[in-house]
Amino acid sequence: MFSYNRFFFSGILFVKYQEWVQRPHIIFDAGRIIKINPSAIKVIKKTSESKFVFTTYSDEKSEAEPFLWNGKKIRFDVGNSIAMRGENGNNIITIDLTKYDYIGRIHVIQLVIDNSASKGLAVLVRLRATSRRSMLLIYDPAAKLLYQELLYRNKNGNMMNINTDATGKEYLYLDIESPILYSSNTK
User: Quick one: pLDDT band at residue 83, thresholds 50, 70, 90?
Assistant: First the structure.
């Protein structure tokens, strides 16, 4: 009986540890993206919605669609990782999420990162439905990772878009656990 209880409690500890590892938290931050409470910004309008580019579920779109990023078509190849490839098949970005969960859906959107004409890319990956987790990744125009955060999610549909304030500044809007804005901290 003693060994059974020890096995039972070690199983509980393992589950608690896994939940701690999978807790919502910032995984990487290059210091160029900031989070803002939506109530801190005045006169916001939605200017564009993210594009649904991949699903693993058979009752939804079955093929990954190309996405136009800074005038170039990119495709999403999804297996154990996500590979974003250019038209000639060259690898632009690889995202390895195997230690988090399997990939359910992917939404992407372009966003202003700096004063250049090129835009960055925000990638929202919804993980296994029962995990209730999503992963946000933000890249600069050169495909360099700027920000990665593991998030809770509890809403369905399109949860990511670009909002613009009265001055024309863009904000990445996410409505996951609660609404939040992300912005470049460059002036």
Answer: very high
